[in-house]
Amino acid sequence: MRITRLSTHVVGTPWRNLTHVLVHTDEGLTGVGEARMLGHTDALLGYLAEAERNHIAGSDPFDIEDLVRRMKYGDYGRAGEIVMSGIACVETACWDIVGKTLGQPVWRLLGGKVRDRIKAYANGWYTVERTPEAFHAAAVKVVERGYRALKLDPFGNGHFELDRAETLRSVSLVEAVRDAIGPEADLLVEMHGRFNPATAIRLAGLLRPYDPGWIEEPCPPENPRALAKVAAHTDLPIATGERIHDRIEFRELFDLQAVDVIQPDISHIGGIAETRKLAATAETHYVLVAPHNVGGPVLTAANLHLAACTPNFSIQEHFNDFADAAIKQVAPGLPEVVDGYFALPQEPGLGVTLDVEACERFPRQRAKFDLFAEDWHLRDPERTGPRGATAGP
Q: Which of 9, 192, 268, 318 is catalytic?
């Protein structure tokens, strides 16, 4: 079997575009992969066109390790977000082809299951007014939907520091959510790399009474030693990793003992096997894995296969029950979250099939997502302009 060509299909949403890649073979089988790019979709499509000519066409889809190696190192330059995302799309699609050929779900090919269901947490649910009452009501809907875990960023457009009024407001939102979901549900707090270490440490202390399961990206991701300072001054677990694009770059975080939960994004770190290798390294440091996932059903399916076979997997992020739920129709077959858990996929390959006609119902948009804009949490690009300036008259 040989790869003959790629085709790409961009699914648009107001705040992100999802790029789907179909890998076609000379035996008629196809596999699908997906990546979410923020502001770099054209760059991804351009890279895939060149990689198709230089590395992909003519390759055996079963030789995944060789294909990833050639795509990562065969162009000499250092691979970053664009290249690693392109690799991830193709690598995931190859696993889909291998699974379909052998009649097995991908998780069986990666060592078999270590769990019978996969715990999920909800994101994208707090697109409401930034008041305790609104966040409380929205959180109630999440637990009514069956989730037993959710995540929020309560910090507005905070950057490096947070003034007293915003600090009190942000903490009041967390307090309201904890009250809504009760003591038994998991509450995860996102910081989106906003703060300097001193501010992050202070906020961690204020959040401690609400027992968050982790604080995520308390500092910008470029400086592991700043993160280590935060970790040394709080007993709350530290989660990070969604903006790291090479598993090798996690080494310093492990060495510094600066992280308790890593959050690699399959679609940005080279695919399923690269993430599984990283998870095995994390296991030797007693670090958990909770993959970042803001994709649609294809990327979520890839995450479920990884979770099924990874001993130190913790919990899976999921957006599409609350944000852009309609895009689930572009790739039917994904299990639904029931009582807070995904069932394991059982169909061959990834278990989802890209519906190209459905993709066309979601044309590419001028997606915008600016974490430092006012009301960014609404994920509505019509409401915000650059750096917090309100759009329109």
A: 192
